[in-house]
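ARCHIVE RECORD
Type: protein–small molecule complex
Small molecule: NAP
Source of inputs: curated submission
Record status: active
Notes field left blank by submitter.
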Amino acid sequence: MTTELEIGLYIFMLAGFLGYHVITRVPPLLHTPLMSATNAMSGISLIGSLVVAGAGHTALSTLFGFIAVTCSSTNVVGGFLITDRMLKMFKAERDASRDGQPARSGGTGVLVLVGLFVGLGLVAYLAGRLRASGSTAGLEQAVKFFYILSAALFILGLKGLSSPKYARRGMFLAEFGMLMAVTGTLFNHEILSFQWIFAGLGVGSIIGGSIGLWVPMTAVPQRTALSHSLGALAATLIGISEYLRHVSLHDLGTVLMTALGFEVMIGGLTFTGSLMAAGKLQELLPGAPMTYKGQNASNITLLTTMVGSLIYLIFVPSATVVFFLMVGLALLFGFLLVIPIGAADMPVVISLLNSYAGLADASMGFVLMNKIQIITGSLDGTSGFLLSLLMCRAMNRSAMNVLFGAFGKVEEEAAAAVTDVRGAVRSIAPDEVPSLLDSARLVVIVPGYGMAVAQAQHAVAELATLLLKRGIDVKYAIHPVAGRMPGHMNVLLAEANVPYDRLFEMEQINPFFPEADLALVVGANDVTNPAARSNRSSPLYGMPILEVDRAKSIIVLKRSMRPGFAGVENELYYNPKCMMLFGDAKDSLTKLFTVFK
Ligand code: NAP
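STRUCTURE (tokenized, with ligand):
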């Protein structure tokens, strides 16, 4: 084993352990920003892409480098902008009350980007001049230290996400770290020209900037999936370009071939898998799981052929046809891996793909022996994997069930196995609710996926403000998998200016339910189903839930008696304390607000 590889592997493992400890401290409140922050950091594939775009080895490698720079800079600019937009919405009560400042406008964002471009242009000019005078050796040494510093800044950035108070500051550090890494790379001696670098940076920044500034918060899951596909495409193209270069130089050793193989294989499957996930979430593709006979067997055969091709290439690296066959199979595998999964399960898939994109990035780091890419890839991989596991745990699903696919199907089968819950269902009209509210001292609001569908977060916040004005205490109960992505409810409520200190995680709020005069359930279903506690035959059995049924009275806002994501009937609705306020959540809340005002 070469010393370089040994060091690389140590770095990879240590960064993974460090990432694990830092990321487990990120509260569920900030899980969505964490997803987009690690996504932005995974844009560190920019470092390798810049070198390939500027080295001018062949016309094809320059083209691939240009596309990779475009994809990576889209992720960096878009990822950091959207993370900042989200984090700015998280306010404590005292900050929310004196809030009046508008969010950073699109104009300011564009100005910052233009400023950065001018700065990078000057650095490129300086690098060119220094290279012409033959005095870059010292600078290249300095650049290595810049990389170390930027790695430290990334870790501090993630550490900032352990509290909403320091999260934005943390992200500024990470952004600065990225800027330093990019600036330093411009001094790399392999870069001979800058025109394709700047063209890629320009196009990527415009696309990323537009996405980051204007994409609605409700579209964050599909944006994240799309962004993983861009990062994976960058890694795959750089992998192909490096493979062709080294094949022509006849210097493909075992280590390099292994790293290249992993890079294109994981990159390829993440690219098509993420595109599929984004398509399903955006409803461009059918959301229902697509299954066929022998699906698992054919997927396993495909995977075995891919791994077999890689092993063959390690011994015969010049087998170009096998290499491209492997790339083709990886692209097909990513596609086939995601089609049997229902749209509702995509968040787990996105998180897993995030982890794969990190691994592709780290492999690229091994190919180019670039330590900062190894560190960031490892952090990204750990973060994605951890979030997937947390989601599985909160849904009471096994990691095996997630890893081996076809889980969208499970819910359909679960629906058939619904327990026969029967009893009287009481409904209530909006004008009957004020009498209940008037006598209440504590109201617990339980938001769920239906709040997101109805876009009712502002109506919820308005009603809560009115209740508070009337001296009624209001708390929000947040289940870790309410909605369709980790931290979904937190982001929506933050968007509606609800202070984060009014939001309570499941373990914190459950003891409050017995003293709550009213639990107002806004479009939440599965996360409130008491069957999870008491009914062994329920598919939800064992999932920790919000103990809404312990409140003195309950009002559920939803449109019908239809079940939620898990397809299981909710026993709560037959509880004598429970009243159903049927209708779209936003409409019902607006009516309620009008009669209570
Ligand atoms: P849910 O169980 O899916 O229920 C949502 C409810 O919202 C539905 O019963 C629906 O009933 C109602 N609804 C939809 N549109 C509405 C509207 N416009 N107005 C009012 N109500 C509306 O949601 P949940 O309680 O939030 O639970 C989340 C589920 O997603 C869990 O099963 C969880 O395991 C799963 N999941 C979550 C994540 C994550 O990361 N958060 C990831 C993967 C899976 P009507 O149709 O009758 O209105």
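CURATOR ANNOTATION: The pocket of NAP is lined by residues 344-345, 347-348, 391, 395, 448-450, 453-454, 481-486, 488, 523-527, 557-560, 562, 564-566, 584-585 (CB under 6 Å).
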